[in-house]
Specification:
281 residues; alpha/beta; Pyruvate Kinase, Chain: A, domain 1; 5-stranded mixed β-sheet; 5 strands; elongated; ATP_synth_F1_ATPase_gsu; ATP synthase gamma chain; membrane
């Protein structure tokens, strides 16, 4: 059995670790609140843009935009959005596991565009080709960062380096529930809108689509990044909360062991004193 001094040293170490995990939990909770606010603002915008596309899909167009062109699928690109840091439970592992499964089931040639260090570092050990990588987006990614990623993805699609593009990210449901999802990004599927009112567009639907479709891709990527950031902070807050609780349980067990060791030492000393006194009689 470990001595009292060793157990006391372990209790001190665990208590210091508990203070760290508790502070990280509070920091993640504050960042989660901000990420949720940005996500709540982005979701209605994405839904409204979807509605505009539904109305445009009912209007006759003279040309087909390059982002709407469907080609025989020979090259598939996955845009994987993970975190730059760790200590966030199974957030990265679940998404990477889902992506790995999809890659294994895809018969076509697969390439990757990674956002975040964790996904990049994991798949770098494999034989999958990387078309682009983006890291260090920070805790509050901007629309310009998403626009840069979207422009690279659009360029790859228009040059024929990708026949289909899928977004792989973690959808934020709640602080304790995050769901890895796959969303088809390119080619853009025209929404099947309900036949309703006839709209007069100015400028023409072709001009609107030329401007709207790239912005639609940017919006989808931006929303996916915000979903991932909120999920990351929620997963980290939950993980740090569990670590703090586990540290408290460990301190209780170590305190019990220390008390037992102290009691055993006292009992041994009393036994030695009684034995010595009996020997003198």
């Amino acid at each position: 059995m470990a001595g009292v001094r060793d157990i006391r040293r372990r209790i001190r170490s665990v208590r210091n670790m508990q203070q760290i995990t508790k502070a990280m939990k509070m920091v993640s909770a504050a960042k989660l609140r901000k990420a949720q606010q940005k996500l709540s603002a982005a979701r209605p915008y994405a839904r409204q843009m979807q509605g505009v596309l539904e109305r445009l899909s009912q209007a006759p167009v003279d040309t087909v935009h390059p982002l709407l062109v469907k080609r025989p699928v020979q090259k598939v690109v996955y845009v994987l959005i993970t975190s730059d840091g760790g200590l966030c439970g199974g957030y990265n592992a679940n998404l990477i596991r889902k992506t790995s499964g999809l890659i294994a089931e895809t018969p076509q040639e697969v390439k990757l565009v990674t956002v975040g260090r964790k996904g990049r570092d994991f798949f770098r050990r494999g034989k999958i080709e990387f078309l682009a990588e983006f890291v260090a987006l920070g805790d509050a990614p901007s629309y310009n960062q998403a626009k840069e990623i979207a422009q690279e993805v659009i360029r790859l699609y228009e040059r024929g380096e990708a026949d289909e593009v899928y977004l792989m990210y973690t959808e934020f449901v709640s602080a304790i529930n995050q769901r890895p999802v796959q969303v088809k990004l390119l080619p853009i599927e025209k929404p099947e809108g309900k036949q309703g009112k006839q709209y007069i567009f100015e400028p023409s639907p072709d001009e609107i689509l030329a401007s709207l479709l790239p912005k639609y891709v940017e919006t989808q990527i931006f929303r996916s990044i915000l979903e991932g950031k909120a999920s990351e902070q929620g997963a980290r807050m939950t993980a740090m909360s569990s670590a703090t609780d586990n540290a408290a349980d460990m301190i209780d067990r170590l305190s019990l062991a220390m008390n037992r060791a102290r009691q055993a030492a006292i009992t041994k000393e009393i036994s030695e004193i009684v034995g010595g006194a009996a020997a003198l009689e």
